[in-house]
Amino acid sequence: MTRHGTRQRLCIDGAMGEGGGQILRTALALSVYLGIPFHLTRVRAARRKPGLQPQHLAAVKAAAEISGATLEGATPGSGELTFDPGAVQPGSYRFDTGTAGSASLVLQTVLPALLTAAGPSQLLLSGGTHNPLAPSFEFIALAFLPLIRRMGPRVTARLLQAGFYPAGGGSLQVDIEPVSRLQALHLPERGAVIEQRARAAVSHLPLHIAQRELRVIGAELGLAGEHLEALELTSARGPGNAVSVIIKSEHVTEVFTGFGERGVRAEIVATRVAAPVRRYLAAGVPVGEQLADQLLLPLALAGGGSYVTLRPSRHTTTNIAVLRMFMALQVDCEELGPDRWRIALR
Question: d(Cα 215, Cα 295) in Å, to the nearest integer?
Answer without folding.
Answer: 32
